[in-house]
Amino acid sequence: xxxxxxxxxxxxxxxxxxxxxxxxxxxxxxxxxxxxxxxxxxxxxxxxxxxxxxxxxxxxxxxxxxxxxxxxxxxxxxxxxxxxxxxxxxxxxxxxxxxxxxxxxxxxxxxxxxxx
Length: 116
Hints:
The protein is mainly alpha-helical. Helices cover about 40% and strands about 5% of the residues.
């Protein structure tokens, strides 16, 4: 990818535009929809839910994570086969599965902490 394309994408992100980022052929071979957190709107969430497989990821400042007692992903008790399947793009946790427990607990803490 050219430096010019990368700079154009960064400029668009700074302006609040959604940018598509393609994972390399030796990874998931997916295209991620990316928008800077400060520009997220209900419409952009709907767009990502509708056209990006429904998985929404975000970042949070370390202080917020500490306040809500949110662990790093690597600290979640996920079995190796679950992590490998997830890295390969295979969904691993339906809400009625025991594998969903860490995610549901995280969602509960976010809601309890005023983030949901």
